[in-house]
Write a structure and sequence with these properties.
The protein has 190 residues and is α/β, with parallel strands linked by helices. It is 34% helix and 23% strand. Helix 2 packs across helix 4. The chain is globular, with a radius of gyration of 16 Å. It comes from Qipengyuania polymorpha.
């Protein structure tokens, strides 16, 4: 399994450079990497611009593609090069990820699903998903020939399945997009 952390968003709604925004004394990217290193000692960071050294391999979004799909495409290329069977895709702006994400998503992909996506609070979370590298190899080139550039569109093409998490005390897939979201996350951690 390859774990890829998406850190390429421009962060316009939060004032730019989202991966470098501070939450409880750490950048969002540092927090994300601290979490995923429990799952994979060698995660990769996928970005479209220069970031400070993270101690992880950094790969560039695939050129000519916008949004998270560019990160998935680049991570897919890396997964094939390293002969990973599956790819866990995560965004750096979700500071409350449950510890059982890899096991629960992998269980579905190992069981034959082409893509397994987290679901919480009535919504599917495409930036918290596990993809079969073999299935991506068959579908991604064809998908990129079309007009759609969403992770949902590609996941739909692969007949994705969802894995439900309880939102309970707060959405475990809460993501930070605005200064208000950052303040709310700080309160949750406080």
């Amino acid at each position: 399994m390859l774990v890829a952390v998406l850190a390429g968003g421009e962060g316009r709604r939060i004032g730019g450079s989202k991966p470098q925004r501070l939450l409880a004394g750490e950048t969002l990217l540092e927090r994300a990497l601290a979490t995923v290193r429990y799952w994979d000692k060698k995660p990769v960071v996928v970005t479209r611009y220069d970031l400070p050294d993270t101690g992880c391999e950094t790969i560039r979004d695939r050129s000519g593609i916008e949004g998270p799909l560019a990160g998935l495409a680049a991570a897919f290329d890396h997964a094939r090069e390293t002969e990973a069977a599956c790819l866990l895709l995560l965004a750096c702006d979700m500071p409350f990820l449950p510890g059982d994400v890899p096991e629960r998503l992998a269980w579905m992909v190992d069981g034959g699903a082409n893509c397994a996506m987290a679901r919480s609070g009535g919504r599917d979370i495409p930036v918290c998903s596990m993809w079969s590298v073999a299935a991506l190899g068959r579908a991604l080139p064809q998908y990129l020939e079309g007009e759609d550039r969403s992770l949902f569109g590609l996941a739909n093409m692969l007949n994705y399945v969802t894995v439900q998490w309880d939102a309970g005390e707060g959405d475990p897939f809460f993501n930070i997009n605005t200064p208000e979201d950052l303040a709310e996350a700080g309160e949750r951690l406080g």
